[in-house]
Design brief:
The protein is of the alpha+beta class. It has helices at about 1-5, 15-20, 60, 65-80, 90-105, 110-115, 130-150, 160-180, 185-205, 210-235, 250, 255-275, 290-295, 310-315, 340-345, 510-520; strands at about 280, 345-350, 370-375, 380, 390, 395-400, 420, 440-445, 450-455, 460-465, 470-475, 480, 485, 490-495, 495-505. A 5-stranded antiparallel beta sheet has the order 8-9-15-11-12, with no helix packed on it. It has a 4-stranded mixed beta sheet with strand order 1-2-4-3. The chain is elongated and about 95 Å long. The two termini are about 15 Å apart.
Length: about 525
């Protein structure tokens, strides 16, 4: 709860949320799995074809349940009224609400819910309601098939039946027309005809079973058809079971990929041997590469992380996934790879799928050495990155979150001083003319950092690792308050003399649990 309250999620705007809406023509995929070619090349509604749904893709939108369940829903549930009987109203209502929610911008209700219903503005994508919709449909269809076994076919209503069939036909025509606009009309039409044949077969089986025993047999057969349909399309499906070879870059990379990875790892090790801890950024390289830094133990500025620390996301804007270059923003506070924040992060190596001057949104080409120039991977080494540890008697107190109207930081990190946020004021005064002393990292783990310092008068220590609740600082075993330093990082006032300093992450410490409860129950602003 503490992380959610401090994350980027509460800052979502309606405009961003609406980009995750389900395009209505996708409802045809409930009945026809391959109407948009998901088994191979996807040509359906998505970022490439409908920019208004930029935050969806074929995996989010895939919602195939089979034509047989849809026949049950429309015939027995809607026309026969089975979906509205006692005991099913709640499930049906959940399905209806989930559908309206998933459609997002395509109904007027989502914007109203976003504005007035607590919690709606915390979710990133309306289309995620598909999960709830499909689960509710499964429960409803189970009830409807049970009704059929007990009571048989519902009474036929001609006008309503014609209206329902016309609606289904219109939806399928819309989907085929959309596919035709992408150059795949014939493929979509063939997929529809195959699915319709299956649906007609199920209708015939259900319609000609007149006795209770025959209805049991008919229900069993259509259930097998539905299960077989789902298995045929979903077993070893690329959206839920990609082959191991797709992720070979993480374990057994191809020679060309291995060469690039070995280069980065060797350079990082060399810098670590010198006492530095450089960060890397891997972006635009495709899906498997987004986990490369984590698997290989590299410290990165980005990764696959939809939920991120709020102020980091706002100031650095790494994007929710680094496999697509267009998701990487460069706000005014981080407009280039050699800006003040990039240097403060210790960003030293950048891996791209194109030359750096072709990166969208980048303000200008940074000063960087080219370590590899294609053909598939470009590797750059940035100059003048800052060390991860700073020990200084030059201290500036300022509002670390203050920005100009264009979004630039009013006070930026600098090598010659430590910037302390005015919400975490230091207790001492540090004349800049005195010597700061020395500090070096003894050991480093993701949840524990040990440092040794030596100074005559005491100094301000800035560890360029993210400032976040749950971290505890100790000087010679005694607790000391952590300050917010250099906009994103942790700072500590260190007294004169030689000292052993430990930063350790203890999120379940009692004081942090109290702070988390206060943050959740009494959020600021």
């Amino acid at each position: 709860m503490q992380f959610a309250a401090m994350s980027n999620r509460p800052s979502l705007t309606l405009e961003i949320a609406l980009k995750g809406s389900l395009y209505p023509a996708h409802l045809a995929q409930l009945m026809v799995p391959d109407i948009y070619g998901v088994q191979d090349y996807f040509w359906g509604p998505g970022p490439a074809t409908v920019p208004a749904t930029a935050y969806t893709d074929d995996s989010f939108n895939y919602m195939f349940v089979g034509f047989v369940p849809i026949v049950l829903l429309l015939w027995f549930g809607i026309l026969g009224g089975g979906a509205f009987r006692r005991g099913r109203v709640l499930i049906t209502a959940i399905a209806a609400v989930a559908l309206i929610y998933a459609l997002g911008r395509y109904t007027p209700l989502f914007a109203l819910a976003f504005e007035w219903l607590p919690g709606v503005d915390k979710f990133r994508r309306p289309v995620d309601a598909n999960f709830l919709l499909v689960a509710a449909l499964a429960l409803i269809c189970g009830h409807l098939l049970s009704d059929y076994v007990r009571a048989g076919l519902p009474r036929l209503r001609i006008v309503a039946s014609v209206a329902v069939v016309a609606g289904v036909v219109a939806l399928l025509v819309w989907a085929v027309t959309f596919s035709a606009q992408q150059g795949y009309g014939m493929e979509a039409l063939v997929a529809v005809l195959k699915a319709v044949a299956l649906a007609l077969g199920a209708i015939v089986i259900l319609a000609f079973a007149r006795t209770p025993r025959a209805r049991v047999v008919a229900a069993s057969i259509v259930t097998l058809i539905a299960v077989g349909d789902l298995l045929w399309w979903n077993v070893a499906f690329r959206l839920n079971a990609q082959g191991h070879s797709a992720y070979a870059v993480l374990e057994e990379p191809k020679p060309a990929d291995a060469k690039v990875i070995d280069l980065i790892e060797r350079l990082v090790r060399e810098r670590q041997a010198q006492g530095e801890r450089p960060r890397v950024e891997v972006v635009g390289m495709g899906g498997p590469w987004q986990n490369l830094a984590m698997v290989r133990g590299l410290e990165a500025t980005n990764g696959y992380n939809p939920l991120r620390i709020g102020f980091y996301d706002r100031l650095v804007s790494p994007g929710e996934g680094n496999w697509r270059l267009d998701l990487r923003d460069f706000p005014a506070s981080f407009d280039n790879y050699d800006c003040a924040l990039a240097r403060a992060l210790g960003l030293e190596f950048v891996m791209l799928n194109r030359p750096i001057e072709q990166v969208p949104h980048l303000a200008s080409r940074p000063v960087a050495d080219v370590l590899q120039a294609g053909p598939d991977v470009w590797v750059y080494r940035l100059r003048n990155s800052s060390p991860r540890l700073k020990f200084s008697r030059r201290v500036q107190v300022a509002d670390a979150d203050a920005i100009t109207t264009s979004g630039q930081l009013l006070a930026s990190p600098s090598l010659d001083r430590v910037l302390i946020d005015d919400d975490t004021l230091p207790s001492g005064i540090y004349p800049a003319e005195a010597s700061a002393g020395r500090a070096h990292i003894v050991s480093w783990r993701s949840d524990r950092v040990e440092i040794e310092t030596d100074s005559d008068l005491g100094s301000m220590l800035a560890l360029h690792d993210i400032y976040y609740p749950g971290w505890i600082a100790e000087i010679d075993g005694a607790r000391a308050p952590i300050l917010r330093a250099d906009v994103l990082f942790r700072g500590l006032e260190v007294p004169a003399g030689r000292h052993g300093i430990v930063f350790r992450f203890a999120p379940f410490a009692l004081d942090n649990l109290r702070d988390a409860l206060k943050l959740v129950t009494h959020p600021r602003g």
